[in-house]
Amino acid sequence: MMEIDHIDRQILRELRADGRIANTRLADRIGLSPSACLRRVQALEAAGIIAGYRAVVDPARLGQGFTAYLTVGLSEHTKAAQARFEQSMIACPEVRECHNVTGTVEYLLRVEAADLAAYKAFHTEQLGTIDGVNQIVTHVVMGSPKDERA
Fold it and tell me: Are 38 and 100 members of one domain?
């Protein structure tokens, strides 16, 4: 496993804020030469610490103004039941995140839909028809004062 020092942490902080920052500007902010900065970024990528770069998209501007987090419980606690559920979630474009969690339920989902009616259709016609789902609790997002997903 790669050792991470304070300079690597600074690089990661800057890249989280702006993944498209030019290497020369990144090097200037960190206080390194461009070649030393580039070597460190490449080492972080090679070690898998930097797993990729993404565009942060505003779902509301794409007509996806409704966001909710759902907890989902399954009636069976088997590997096969979980695999079936996960494959179903991968096939649903409304499901932006699917996490297998510990606690009283098996899954935490982040769902984006155009509006409440579109969410209800997803809830009733897709999620509610999956064999083995026995509990769904919806938490509607009212606002996001801090969101560092990228």
Answer: no
